[in-house]
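Data card: per-record layout.
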Amino acid sequence: MTTLFLPVGQLSRQTILHTARCIADTQLPSGAIPWFDGHLLDPWDHVEAAMGLSIAGFQVQAAKAYRYLARIQEADGGFWPAYADTVPLDRTRKETHHSAYLATGVWHHYLITADRMFLEEMWPHAGAGLDFACERQTPHGEIAWTVNDRGHAYPDALVTGCSSIYKSLECGCQISQELGDERADWIPVRRNLGRAIRNSPHRFDRTWASKARYSMDWFYPVLCGVITGPRASRRLLERWEEFVLPGLGCRCVSDEPWFTVAETCELIMALTAAGHRGKAASLFADLHRARHRDGSFWTGYQSELDIFWPRERPTWTAGAVLLAADALAGLTPAAHLFTSAAPCRALIPEAREVFAADSPG
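The structure for this 361-residue chain is written out next.
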C-alpha cells in the first residue's frame, strides 16, 4: 500500500545509497560527521546521521561514527554541545538528551548488523550516557535539559528532549537485556519520566518561553512512544492543520512559513506509529522537492519567499530522510524502532500502564 503514494524510485536502492553517500563523504577520518563540510557537529545530530549510514549499508562508517563518540565522551558520560572534529567548541554545558541518544544509535546499529562485539564494546559508553541523563531527574519525573560546566543541572526541562531520553532508555534496556547486564535502576526513571511528559505539562518550559509553537513538542511524545494508541492519534490530528500543509510538509514552528525536512521525516515516523500510514506516505512523497541532485536534502523551504532556506543540506537531515524511508518501507530490521514499541521484559509492566492510559474509557 505504501508504495502507491510514492513517486517511482523514491525508495529505490540507488536513491537510498545516493543519500547515504552524502553523509559518508562528509564524515571525517576521526569518524566525526559534521553538519556539512567545514561546519561543526553536535552529538545528537551526529547519531541521527550515523543511523542513516547503518540503514543504507555503510556499516563500517557507522561503527566508526559511534566509536568517535566513545572517544570524545567525557568521564561523567556527557558530551559538550558542539565540536570541530574532536575539539569542543563550547564547554559551558552538556545536554542530557545528547548523552542519552548514543544508546539509541548503538541499539539501532545492532538491530541491523547483529554485531555483538560492537554492542559489547559500546555498552559502557551507552550506559554512561544514560546514567548522565538519569542522574538529572527531578522528584517530579522530568529530566533537566542541561548541566553546566560545574555539574549543576539547569532547573527546567524540554518536552522534546525528555521524549528522546524516554526512547533512549528503552534502547538501553534492550541492550542490557541482550547482554545479560540488566539495569533495573533505569525502569523507574523511564516510568516517572513518561508520567511527567503525559500528565505534568507544567513541569516543562518553566523558565523560558513555551516551546509549544515548535512542531517537535507536538509529535515527539508520539514518535518516542510516550503517548500511544488512540491518544497518540488524537494528539496528531488536533494540531495537524496548524503545522502541516500538503505539498510542503511540516512547519518547524507554527507561526512561520518554514517547512523543514527533518521535522517532516520525524512526523512521518510518528504518524506511522499512530497508524496513519497513508498520511505518512503522502508526506514522504512531498520530500522529493527538497532533494538536491547529489542526493542530499535542503534543511527547509520558506514558502512566502519561495526559497530553500537556509542554504545548507545537513547530514542529519539526510539521516532523518533515511530513517523515515526505513519506517515506511521496512528496509532493515531496525525499521520498527520509532514506529512500534518493543520493550524488553523489564518494561512490559510500564507498556501495559501506557496502553491503559492511552486507551479510551
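Known properties of this structure: Strands lie at 83-84, 87-88, 93-95, 146-148, 244-245, 249-250, 258-260, 300-302, 307-308. Residues 1-6 have pLDDT under 50 and may be disordered.

See the next section for split statistics.
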